[in-house]
Amino acid sequence: MKDTHENTLKIDSLNHWFGEGETRRHVLQSISMEIFPGEVVLLTGPSGCGKTTLLTLIGALRKVEDGDLRVFGQQLFGANRKTRQNLRKKIGMIFQGHNLLRCLTAEQNVQMGADLLNGFSYKARRNQSREWLRAVGLEDHMSKLPHDLSGGQKQRVAIARALAAKPKLLLADEPTSALDSSTGREIVDLLKKLAFDQACSVLMVTHDPRILDVADRLLRMEDGQLLPSV
Amino acid sequence: MIRKFLENRRIPLAWLLLTRQPLRILVAIAGISFAGILMFMQLGFRDGLFDASVTVHKLFNADLVLISPRSKSSISMSGFPRRRLIQAMAHKDVIGTTAVNWNFLLWRNPENLSTRSILALGFDPTNDLLLDPNFKEKADTLKNKGRVLFDELSRDEFGPVSSWFRSGRIVETEVAGKRVRVSGLVSLGPSFGADGNLITSRETYLDLYSANPPGSIEIGLVRTKKGSNIESIVRSLNASLPNDVRVISLQSFIDFEKNYWKSSTSIGFIFTLGAAMGFVVGCVIVYQILYSDVSDHLPEYATLMAMGYNLRSLIGVVAREGFFLALMGYIPAYVSGQLLYSLVRSSTKLPVEMSFARASIIFCLILFMCMGSAIAAMKKLADADPAEIF
Ligand SMILES: Nc1ncnc2c1ncn2[C@@H]1O[C@H](COP(=O)(O)OP(=O)(O)OP(=O)(O)O)[C@@H](O)[C@H]1O
Ligand SMILES: [Mg+2]
What we know:
heterodimer, A: alpha/beta, Rossmann fold, six-stranded mixed β-sheet, 10 strands, B: alpha+beta, two-stranded antiparallel sheet, 50% helix, 17% strand, binds adenosine-5'-triphosphate
């Protein structure tokens, strides 16, 4: 048997359905894939093919109904809520919208990520958060509320927040779709660089053809099935 | 301990959620304070009225009290033969007695000449009546006929008697249509039944109230030897005296009066109901605030769950919001309560005090109100589904 810890993510014939009875739809059909540490993998495909669903399953946000899904060697099929909750702390997530907390400043938002770490004092976590904001180029905007930041700046804060919890896997669902193309490009480059520094694997869903070149590997999906890689 | 707490603390999300929405928190604080003030007022009035019903009772220098079994309360005292008090003197532990007449008479306001019912006490000035050590001297002035001691705490409707008297003016007016002169001031306080009080000699009293049956009194005060067993004296006096009189301890006399107001009137019910309404209104307001707060931030709570915060820590956030609201609502309620109490004291002369017991009961009620509402609002957290935020 292969040592599962070698890969960050390993999926074997994963199936998922939505709806009941007549309207029941087979959204993911025996998906199998692997992601290795430090890899940047892009996932593309037409709208409605099941990309987001796959991401929520990997992110332990949804119960696995059928198939084998291991993140950091942890089996998610049949995993209870507590296991899934603990796993989420180790997975960074960046959403289409920035999903920042409106009532917190940029620095406090990032610290919400850092606060998930055990064994660091408040001060240490705060300094880490500031460090991350500097890394995404927002050292002058630390005490601004999301309301006062531009779209690109908000997405940078979201990246800093996701990385502040020191994840080994980063899931991003169309992180550039709300941004103009040059900002989108910057964000993706930044994401790739920071993930590389942290030896963090990235799985990114995107529709944007201009950013496909950042990928180490490209996966295509159609109608709930992964197409053989090119 | 504190160091550890400071090291381990996280971003105070509950506090920031509340304080970054000043309008919402203002409404919440106003609502909670309003509920708190309502409870302070209603319960304060209730306790104050019950305490006020025994202001005079508490001042009597007596260990036992004789009353007629037909007496129901201070506003309907029946008489009994004065002889019973002399018979009570026969008990070996009794060292002194005072016969007291107790009735309402009409007092004429010396300033605007309107009349108003005042509680008049008549007693023999050579006997003891009140615990106040300065009273003896004032009582001596009653040995002249037609003199009364006026209660300076009486309501203002009786006229500016105390200020006139203090300024050295001779205050004369009519009681029950007969001329009297104020020869001194005492501090008793108005009660439920009586807006004002006056004390006079038995002789003057009978002159003012000539309809009083001869030899009949309303209250007999009995003083006993120091350290004697009150209960056993009560029992033996009740056994030896005819049953046209009832012997009770001073404390029972006080309870007897309070119980009348508590059980025979709806005062207790009305004020408790008022306080309960304040509580309910507060609950509704806090619940509304917290519920809409959770609903507004649902995507953010879902994001936190996706990041790895568990449901328990989110419940903790809502619970802390409830706790902060309770604190922030209680403080203005307490302060306003104090202010309103002093306002009530000066305008109604009721003994409404901020007691520690009431202050803590209302704090508990407000805490309960906020935490209960927080728990109800937490149900909404179940709608925060991290799978739906991508
Ligand atoms: N909660 C749900 N309940 C029922 N059906 C759902 C649910 N979420 C998604 N679906 C359906 O599952 C299919 C896959 O949805 P999914 O969101 O994964 O697609 P996607 O590839 O992310 O599309 P897009 O590129 O538009 O974001 C779609 O047909 C969608 O209608
Ligand atoms: Mg999608």
